Amino acid sequence: PRMTTVQRDAISSPATGLVIFNTTTNSLEIRNSSAWASLSTVADALPTIQIGSQKWMSKNLDVAFYRNGDPIPQVTNATAWAALTTGAWCYYDNDPSAGEVFGKLYNWYAVNDPRGLAPEGFHIPRDDEWSSLINFLGSAWVAGGKMKATGTSLWQSPNTAATNSSGFTGLPGGYRDAYGTFNWLSNCSSWWSSLIAYATASTAFFRELNYDHGEAGTSIRNREDGLSVRCLRD
C-alpha cells in the first residue's frame, strides 16, 4: 500500500512484517516488532543490470501510477485507444497474464507526461543512451542477439543469434498500433525512447529486437502506439 507518514502512523496495531511504500519519504518501510524501518529507496529496491557504465532495469516497466501517485488510465477499447492524446497503458491483448511476463504497454504520451512515468531514481532513456548501450555491445549489427533472452519458449523460432550475454533479457512483448490493434507478440521487442522524431512530428524514436536476426533496430512510431518501456538508472 502507498501512504504518507501520517497515514502510516494512524494504522492501529500494525502487524510485524507489514511493508508499505511511504510517499512522504519515497521509500519502502517494514514494521518490525516495535517501529517502522526503512528498507531502501525505491531505486535501490528495483532489480537492475549493469551494462558498461549504465544500470538498466532488468525487466520491462509495469506501473499503473505516475511518479507523483496519479493513476495512469488503462484503456482496453481499440477506438478509445486510437483517439488518445494523453497517457495510457494496456496489456497485450488486454490479457493480464501477458503483463505478468512482458510488463505493460504504454503510449508515448505516458512516456512524456510531466508527472513522470519512470519510478524515482530512474528515467526513460534518451535515444543517445540507447545508442550508448548498443555501441558498448559492439554495434547495432550484433547488439540485438546479446540483448535477447535465449530459447524459443517466448521468442518465435529461430530466435536468431540470441545469447543474452549482456543480461538485458529482452522479451518479445509485441506492441499495440495507433489503431488499437495488437501485433507481433513473440516476434519482437519494442521500447520507447524519450526523443520525438522532430518538433512538429507525431512520432517518436524507439528501439526494437526481432526473432529472425541479431540486430538492434531503431526507427520511429506514432505517439499513439503502445510499446514496452525499459528504464535507466539516473
In words, what does this structure look like?
The chain has helices at 5-9, 42-45, 78-82, 96-102, 108-111, 127-136, 140-147; strands at 2-3, 19-22, 27-31, 36-41, 48-51, 54-57, 89-90, 105-106, 122-123, 175-176, 182-183, 188-196, 203-210, 216-222, 232-233. The radius of gyration is 19 Å and the shape is globular. A four-stranded mixed β-sheet has the order 1-2-3-4. It is built from seven helices and 15 strands. The chain has 234 residues and is an alpha+beta fold. It is 18% helix and 26% strand. The mean pLDDT is 92.
Principal-axis shape equals: globular
**For the CA atoms, what is the radius of gyration?**
19 Å
Tell how many strands the DSSP assignment holds: 15
Give the N-terminus to C-terminus distance in angstroms.
25 Å
The residue fraction in helices comes out at 10-25%
Structural class: alpha+beta
Low-confidence stretches: none
> Strand portion, in percent?
25-35%
One letter per element, helices H and strands E, the order comes to: EHEEEHEEHEHEHEHHEEEEEE
* Helical segment count: 7
Major sheet? 4 strands, mixed
Summarize the SSE layout with pairings.
Elements (H helix, E strand, L loop, with lengths): L1 E2 L1 H5 L9 E4 L4 E5 L4 E6 H4 L2 E4 L2 E4 L20 H5 L6 E2 L5 H7 L2 E2 L1 H4 L10 E2 L3 H10 L3 H8 L27 E2 L5 E2 L4 E9 L6 E8 L5 E7 L9 E2 L1
Parallel strand pairs: 1-2
Antiparallel strand pairs: 2-3, 3-4, 5-6, 7-8, 9-15, 10-11, 12-13, 13-14
